[in-house]
UniProtKB/TrEMBL annotation:
Sequence ranges assigned to domain ABC transporter in this UniProt record: 2-232
Phylogenetic classification of the source organism: Bacteria, Bacillati, Bacillota, Clostridia, Lachnospirales
Swiss-Prot/TrEMBL keywords: ATP-binding, Nucleotide-binding, Transport
Top-level taxonomic group: Bacteria
SMART domains per UniProt: AAA
Protein's name in the database: ABC transporter ATP-binding protein
InterPro entries: AAA+_ATPase, ABC_transporter-like_ATP-bd, DrrA1/2-like_C, P-loop_NTPase
Organism the protein comes from: Dorea formicigenerans
Coiled coil: none
Listed GO MF terms: ATP binding; ATP hydrolysis activity
């Protein structure tokens, strides 16, 4: 559905996209995951031909995307990071206006607008002005405006930023439903939990470059970390730390602010062995956590820094 090859975009001296390559298939919810400033919004702007780029090609539905590719654009729905609605119009009039850019038949549009309002749970607010809506409801209105014309491809740029948990869940559920109804979705976020929850495939990007692509499982299998064990323990001495470091499967150990963090490369019964070691050496400890790898671990291993930074 989308093929992006060697995309380069500069803002003056800054290289925002550095030979970005992406292939997105029909039916996917494709996550673009990267920290702030990694180039997600710029990539979207280029895909939509809203930004000029310096090098590379972008094909959507098998055709080159250009600013006047109206046949392609009418099949795309966009939900941008910043809420863009008209405050002097009602909720319903806003959705009707944006839907009207694609659908001229009034009867057909009425049905689509009703469906979109119902879909985002704003039917009861239809006559209200956007200024009367909470932040979460405003985001839902932004989504209704972008999807009412039932596009084949929906591009969402961080639609849940600064949204309360209830609206966030509603938005994520809505995205899954849109996908079930047949839309392919591109979803950008720096929240790894969201991406993990809804995306069928993910590209991790940093500095305008794709670092890894795959399903969540595939990405986690690319890294050495199989398990991370965290133990609260006070005043561990260097001898203890070096003994733990030599235990089977341990490949990294840190001890900061009385918290011991051990990364292990797979293996079984790691936690039991560690607790036995602490017990045998009369070392008292507080809370203990064992975690399977997250997308943050994938990012950390590839870049050496946290996704949350
Ligand atoms: N109009 C602009 N002029 C100059 N630099 C820009 C412009 N827009 C973005 N940048 C820079 O390009 C880089 C990529 O930014 P971009 O907004 O695409 O990243 P992002 O991953 O979408 O981040 P965020 O989640 O914060 O929106 C950043 O270094 C950013 O400061």
């Amino acid at each position: 559905m989308i093929h992006i090859e060697n995309l380069v975009k500069r803002y003056g001296d800054l290289i925002a996209l550095d030979h970005l390559n992406l292939d997105i298939k029909e039916g996917e919810i494709f996550g673009l995951l990267g920290p702030n400033g990694s180039g997600k919004s710029t990539a979207i702007g280029c895909m939509l031909a809203l930004l000029k780029y310096d090098k590379g090609t972008i094909q959507i539905f098998g055709k080159n995307m250009t600013p006047d590719s109206y046949d392609i654009k009418k099949e795309i729905g966009v939900v941008m990071q910043n809420v863009a609605v008209f405050h002097q119009m009602s909720v319903r009039e806003n959705v009707d206006y944006f839907c009207g850019l694609y659908v001229t038949d009034k009867q057909k549009r009425k049905k689509l607008v009703d469906e979109a309002l119902d879909f985002v749970g704003l039917t009861e607010y239809a006559k209200k002005r956007p200024g009367k809506l909470s932040g979460g409801l405003l985001r839902r209105l932004n989504i209704a405006c972008g999807i009412a014309h039932k596009p084949k491809l929906i591009i969402m740029d961080e639609p849940t930023v600064a949204v309360d948990p209830q609206s966030r869940n509603r938005i994520l559920e809505g995205i899954l439903e849109l996908n079930r109804q047949g839309s392919t979705i591109i979803y950008t976020s720096h929240y790894m939990e969201e991406v993990e929850q809804i995306c069928s495939r993910i590209a991790i990007i940093d500095h305008g470059h794709v670092l890894a692509t795959g399903t969540c499982e595939e990405l986690k299998n690319m890294i050495k970390t199989g398990e991370t064990i965290t133990i609260e323990a006070i005043n561990l001495n260097p001898e203890t730390l070096s003994e733990i470091r030599t235990m089977p499967n341990v490949f990294e150990l840190t001890y900061e602010e009385q918290v011991l963090k051990i990364r292990l490369s797979g293996g079984k019964h790691n936690l039991i062995s560690l607790l036995k070691y602490l017990g045998d050496h009369n070392i008292s400890f507080g809370r203990v956590f064992s975690e399977l790898p997250t997308l943050n671990d994938v990012f950390l291993e590839i870049t050496g820094k946290e996704l949350r930074d």
